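#lab-general

N.A. 3:47 PM
ok so I finally got the sequence cleaned up, no stray characters, all 501 residues accounted for. can someone with queue access submit it? mine expired

B.Y. 3:52 PM
send it over

N.A. 3:53 PM
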Amino acid sequence: MTVCGMLAAAGARAQDWTHLAGNPQRVSVAAAAVVPDTPRWVVTSDELGRPVTFYGQSGVVTLGQRVYARGVSGGVSRLLAVSRTTGVVVWSAPVPAPVLESWAAPTVDAGNAAVLVADGPALTAIDAATGGQRWQAPMPRPLVSVSPVVTGDLHPRDRAFVVDYDGVGVGGRLHCINVDPFDAALNPHQPGDELWSAPVGGTSGSTAAYAAGVVYVASASDPAGSSAGVVYAFPAGSTSSPDPLWATPNTEPLGFFGGVAVEGGGVYAASYAFSGGIDAANLVKLDAATGAPLWSVPCNRTSSIPVPLPGGLVALSGGLRGFGTVPSVQVFRDEGPSAARLWDSALGSWHDDNLNGQMDPGEYLLVGGWTQQPVMTASGLLIGALPAGPSTTGAPADLYLLDIDQHPSSPAFVMAHFVGAGASPAVADGWAFTVGPAGLYAFAPPCGPDCNADGSLNLADFGCFQTRFALGEPYADCNGDGVRNLADFGCFQTLFALGCP
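B.Y. 4:20 PM
back already:
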């Protein structure tokens, strides 16, 4: 069975996309089918009509019928709440501006109906319904390219965890912040109170993950300044600064500059190499209970979070233009005591047109990159491509849907390509949301009969279906049997009669 088939058979995960990479475990998987086709809506201005410039590489999150994204309007950094179905901006709230080109995604604290923004000098909580500031937790160092993680199973003592920035030193710390209401007996802390912090060494982009009472985080170096990064596990429920449950240095002399994912008893992290080619960094899997290294495999340099998939596969986005590497998506197979790379999208699609032995622009499929967070959906891997230029602040203008069961050299590898947006997407209830140079884009759930995605059913949808059938698009396989034939026309007529939800 294909990866997409396993996701569809397994059923949907949580319907809200509350964290970067979806959930506290940072497992960037959604069982719904997503097709980046015609946008249902695009947000270009705030509720007062002021133009919005969304932070280019920042991800978005959802709660219920609202989408939350970060940008600038009226010269002020803001968090915006947008209606998921209509694209109407409900409110915008001032929040601290990012520093050092931070691309941090917000986080939803669903239990307290708040949205957390980690940027600048503080962790800020905004009321999800009204846009009012709930509380603010000042930090000793700035917050840069980190998305906080919130527990949801420790009530009435749920916490948020965020790592401050010390990219040139070794003083970075993991901070534990109370998010639940004060209770004299059960939770004698106000929302926003810091309960403890713990040293983790050099830090930049160290986004933490949480699972079953344990918070996991990876650093760029240890507190002594070693060249190797460290993956830590801390007890989330501690009431004072704890020692780590375990701390495992990288098996290679490389640091971790991104988040970790926790799935199936394993912790996954990928490093960033400042020199070398596509295989200069490494992807690791550790035992979540003990921290024991299970395997390490060469990978492209990245700050992206690995995506553990059904069937023992792991997807990873990495690379940048220049410095010995190029942007790409890689897929690995977990073989127990080791792992093997199945393919790299750049290497697999490369055609050396000028015969110079170098991967020049235009000679390979430009997809992925070190700041792009992919999402595995029931229809394929949804991922953007790095924007032109070396800056991390520009908004991607390309969004791809990839069939990872195909080799990048296959014409069937790229299932869909949307030009206009592509920052780390959020997927909720089959809707997909992503930022592009022009604004915040929404793609509605695939509704079989609404072929042209204009929100209405009419004869134009029949013409659209005939065209897409002739083009051989996956959409035209209406009954999902893997082939396109006359039965799909009958299927389409039935769905048209049933209408859309």
